[in-house]
Amino acid sequence: MKRLCLLLLSLTLFLGACERVPGEQSLSFFAMDTYMDLRIIGGDAALLASLKEKTEALEALFSVTRENSEISVLNRDGHVIPSEDTEAILKKALALCERSGGALDITIYPALLAWGFTGGSFQVLSPAESQELAAKTDYKKLVFTEKGLELPGDMAVDLGAVAKGYTADVLARMLQEAGIQQALLDLGGNILALGTKTDGSPWQIGLRDPAGEGIIGRLSARDEAVVTSGSYERSFQDAAGRRYGHILDPATGRPAESGLLSVTVVGREGLLCDGLSTALFVLGEEGAIALWRASSDFEMILISEDGKMLISEGLQDRFQPGENCPYEKQIIKRNEN
């Protein structure tokens, strides 16, 4: 248990002291290249096992590194007849790509691979090499036809920006169908809070400092997802000491330089929050605020490189910065005036 708590501290979001409550069932395991912790109030070991089994089944469909996954078949052959889950996640993801103006693009995989963020063989690409890969990134060329799903041969899909969020949504539905009304699902820092704690109070989610240690505040959450993205999660340094983050800008094929350290998105759907956390990071402060103001289905917290903590007004009464939070708190209003 102590070892698990130490692991969870390294995640984007974490839950404090790993405390357990009466009537709680829990299960921790490794899947989708991360540690997952499922906590449910009620239910039994068999229910938890079914959640783990479903998670592993989805990973087998969506993994970009497993040779026989549906996504790998699509990338290799240029076409696949998708299962129900693969079709569902792709349609939702493509809608988010469109909504974000391409700031999220699930066909970014060739660039991720070339930079080494898949596989771990990191290298810095030249602007010309990056732009060549950016030219092969275009979610609009991934299309559904009567024969299934079609993709040009020089392109490839990666669902890393949405897979854990989609999985959280699926597991939440399974729990609700089983009569479970209270649960906290931590899929590698992608949090989905179902209902409340046993005392009726909201779940408390700690937000990690993207530029330091510890947490910068706590968010009260119920019946919603909380997902954070930041370039600090996976990065490498070149010989000169310059750091490159894993969130790539589809327009340039290079690590995004948006002026943000992290983006936290809060909303009803895990996939929505998962995908938008990446898109808003790429868009930067102005673009993220503009998209939020044009929307009504999510709230957000932006941490900027110049020391600001921008909190959308829907969270101002639910997010409490810590006493030693190093960022200047600002509330973003719906009405610019």
What does this structure look like?
Strand 17 and strand 18 (308-312) form a beta hairpin. The protein is α+β, with helices and mostly antiparallel strands and 337 residues long. It has 8 helices and 20 strands. Mean pLDDT is 91; it is low at 1-18. Helix 2 (45-62) packs antiparallel against helix 7 (163-177), helix 4 packs parallel to helix 8 and helix 7 (163-177) packs across helix 8. The protein has helices at residues 2-9, 45-62, 70-77, 84-99, 109-115, 127-134, 163-177, 270-293; strands spanning 13-14, 24-31, 34-41, 79-80, 143-145, 148-150, 183-187, 190-194, 203-208, 215-221, 224-229, 235-237, 243-245, 248-249, 254-255, 260-267, 298-304, 308-312, 319-321, 328-332. The radius of gyration is 19 Å and the shape is globular. The protein has a 9-stranded mixed beta sheet with strand order 2-3-7-8-11-16-17-18-20, with helices on both faces. A 4-stranded antiparallel beta sheet has the order 1-9-10-19, with no helix packed on it. The chain is 31% helix and 28% strand.
Largest sheet properties = 9 strands, mixed
Name the poorly predicted regions: 1-18
Can you give the helix content as a percent range? Answer: 25-40%
Distance between the termini: 50 Å
Write down the overall geometry.
globular
Number of strands: 20
Beta-strand percent range: 25-35%
Question: In terms of structural class, how would the helical and strand content be classed?
Answer: alpha+beta
Tell me the Rg in angstroms.
19 Å
**Which strand order do you get reading across the main beta sheet?**
2-3-7-8-11-16-17-18-20
Number of helices: 8
